Amino acid sequence: MSRIHIEITLGILLVVLTSIVMIIMGFNEETRMERYAVGEVAQSIEVGAGLFENNCSGCHGLTGEGVPNLCPPLNDRHFFTDRLKEVGWAGSLEDYIIATVSSGRLQSTRPEQYVGGGKPAMPAWSERYGGPLRDDQIRDIARFVTNWEATALEQVELVEVTSPISEDPVERGQIVYTSNGCSGCHTLGSLSAGTTGPVLTNIGTLAETRIADVTAEEYLRQSVLNPNAYVVEGFNPDVMPKTFGDTLTDDELSDLVAFLLAQK
After folding, report:
1. What is the pTM of this model?
2. Res 220: pLDDT
3. Which CATH number does the domain housing residue 188 bear?
4. Angle of the 250-261 helix axis to the 216-225 helix axis, nearest 10
């Protein structure tokens, strides 16, 4: 066989082999792209988790459980089954979250239940509206929130767990603090890191000097019952719910005040 024939044969073999490789790659391309898409979404959800914790958890709770009287839960059945119909949104839930986070909300859609974090009720987070987040970051947050759907729609059997009631009012007051949404708005040592309301880390000491002729106990009690009574400089009135006088018992209020007085 001449050299020319050998070169032609080798050329044909290379073409055939290349064609076979291309065909195999073509068969696997769809699977490869699906794996890539799944990986990209997973990475987006992971990034969104960090963004949500840093920017959203103060009002909506670390796991999307919401803060009573302040901001609604996002990790619940109602959000995934009824919210779009409730607001008349025709698109997808992810698009609704992106739109809401991007432009914020001037007023709460359910002010009788959730007053929101201030004025506006929810700030605009998109850079396009003066916020701090890029569009891709807001999409990551939306993907993180929609990732809760499977667990939010599960039928959960609630089991009542009882524990001995502490004889220490400070310990009981901490339970009142954490179970009534205070941690969603206030920073208090390592217990909570909210930013909507004033820092309470040393409030037991600060309350003694805030208002002349008003004791620390009176100051704290009145601040819970009537949040506009003593508005701390740098914070707006009409942000903290005014309903704690109705939702807390006298004993719970006393325990909460005792807990706050102990923060020195």
Report:
1. 0.56
2. 96
3. 1.10.760.10
4. 130
